[in-house]
Amino acid sequence: MKNINFTCPFCSLLCDDIQLETKNNNLKPLNTSCPLLLSSLKREIKEQFPRINGQKTNISQAIENLSILIKKSKSTLFAGMGTDIKGTKATLEIADIYKCIVDHFSGDSYVKNIKSVQELGGFFLTLSELKNRSDTIIIIQSSYDTAPRLFEKYIFPKDTINNLKKRKIVFIGSKVPQFLYKNIKKISFEHIKLDSVNLLNFLSRIRNSINSEVLEIKDRRLLNFLKLLKQTNYGSILWSVSELDNNINDLIVTEITLLIQELNKFTRFSGLSLSGSDHILTVNEVMLWQTGFPIRTSFQNGFPVHDVNLFSTKRLIDNKEIDLVIWINSFNEKKIIINKKIKTVLIGIPTHPQKKNVDVFIPVGTPGLDYNSHLIRLDKVVTAPLKKVRNISLPSVDQVLNKVKERQFQ
Amino acid sequence: MITKLENARIYDPTNKINGKIKDLFIKNGTIIDKPKRNEKISKIINLKNKIIMSGGIDIHSHIAGGKVNLARLLLPEEHRKYLYSSSNKLRSGSGLGTCSSFHIGYKYAKLGYTTVFEPATLPSNARSAIIEMNDIPLIDKGTYTVLSNDDFLLKLIQKKTDQKKINDYVAWIIQSTKSLGIKIVNPGGINAFKFNQRELDLDEKNKKYGITPRSILKVLTKSLIDLKAPHPIHVHGCNLGVPGNIKTTVKQINAVEGKPMHLTHIQYHSYNNEGDRKFSSGASILAEEINKNKNITCDVGQIMFAQTVTASADTMSQYRNHHFAHPKKWICVDIECEAGCGIVPFKYQDKNFVHSLQWAIGLELFLLIKDPWRIYLTTDHPNGAAFTAYPKLIKLLMDRSFRNDEFSKINKYAQKNSILSSLKREYSLYDIAVMTRAGPAKVLGLKNTGHLGIGAKANITVYSEMDDKEKMFENPYMVIKDGEIVVKNGKIKKVFNGKFYIAQTDYDRNIEKEISSYFEKYIGRKMQNFKIQNQELWDHGIEIENILCDRNDY
Question: Does B197 touch chain A if contact means CB atoms closer than 8 Å?
Answer without folding.
Answer: no
